[in-house]
Amino acid sequence: MQVTETVSDGLKRELKVTVARPEIEEKVDARLQEMKQRANIKGFRPGKVPVEHLRRLYGRSIMTEVLQQTISETSQQALAERDERPAQQPQINLPEDSEGVENIISGEADLEYTMSFEVIPDMELADLSKLDLEKEVAEVDEEDVEKSVQQLLESSATYEPKDGAAEEGDQLKVDFVGKIDGEPFEGGSAEDISVVIGKNQFIPGFEEGLVGAKPGEERTVDVTFPEEYGAEHLAGKHAQFDVKVKEVGAPKLPEADDEFAKNMGFESMDKLREAIRDKLSKELEQASRTKLKRQLLDELEKAHDFELPGSLVEQEFNELWRQTTQQMERAGKSFEDMETTEEDERERNRKLAERRVRLGLVLAEIGQRNDIEVTDEEMKRAMMDQARQYPGQEKQVIEYFQQNPSALIELRGPIFEEKVVDYALAMANVTEKPVSKDELFNMPEEEAA
């Protein structure tokens, strides 16, 4: 194999690889000899089929397989010998003229191809031990624990019939017929539907329109469907619902005692409150880590300045732009509606793509230099976590990941990133700053964007 560098421009590389014809022929002959031992062809005893006969029957297909295998092996060998780290899978190009390709396949010419790629840039990693980070931390407020208890009580409420007017929190059983311009519309009618005023489970204005209603009453409720409503033919439309109230029930909450806790699966109210407190604590810790991670990534971006592989940036930009345009289409929004322009939005996506690529390369480099790896056990747990999201289809989900290397890569990525972030945070100087819950969950507008 002979390798010649034909392009070296910044991060761009192009190599011309030549594999001599005798080397290819040797591989083809080896494949034919292997085939001879197991070929079962009419008119010949097993293992006695002449090689030339096999060459006439299968020579072209074998040559194609050998060439594909040779290109795969020699391209990897060329990269290894030059200690090149491609940013993406190299692009392989055979001779453009059909005659040249035919000469290679027919064994009349050496195998020649070019491989084009961009390399991962050399970078000097920042000293993680010199990063100063501030971690916002908040304590669980007992008032929030009691609010959660109250929400559980309300969700377990029963309703007792009442003759008076419906109020906030009451449950009504109703029939309704929805109309637009006086005509009923598809999916707008129902019978014996339960509506709890204040739960906000219906179109805005519907529950409010039932306040004061009494059993047996009929009334018309005016509403306007949200602009982003799922059914396009209803989005933004004004409608009237003719409602017949059949029953009105007042909520009756259970007592916050040990009996209630046992019905919820806990030994006592103390144990229930302990579980709620633990859940709220984990939510606060997650919010704290999220803000700390964002701060770490900001500092890493500031500390590293190197040329980015254009192919990676373009790939990331295209994905971001696809998501942006799809979201706008689903919401029925234009750039003008969003008080921006296509040019400004493209520029914003371009900068975000560059940030993601830069940080991705930095995190990958930190992981590689510090032997950070995702273990088989971690991958198994991740697959099981994904499978549990599809009850009854767990086996199919596991098989999907096992049969799709690209899906496994996507599954591995976030695990690897979190492990590298954990390593970087352990190395950095992190000081804690006590804040309120509201401050912890508050995110500046520019960060949210």
Task: Walk me through what this model shows.
By secondary structure, this protein is an alpha+beta fold. The chain folds into 3 domains: 117 residues, Trigger factor ribosome-binding domain (Alpha-Beta Plaits), CATH 3.30.70; 96 residues, Chitinase A, domain 3, CATH 3.10.50; 188 residues, Trigger factor, C-terminal domain (Trigger factor, domain 2). It is elongated, with a radius of gyration of 33 Å. The strands form 3 sheets. Strands 6, 7, 8, 9 and 10 form a 5-stranded antiparallel sheet that branches. A 4-stranded antiparallel sheet has the order 1-2-4-3. A two-stranded parallel ribbon has the order 5-11. It has 13 helices and 11 strands.
Protein traits:
449 residues; alpha+beta; Alpha-Beta Plaits; Chitinase A, domain 3; 3 domains; four-stranded antiparallel beta sheet; 20% strand; isomerase; Trigger_fac_ribosome-bd_sf; cell division; cell cycle; EC 5.2.1.8
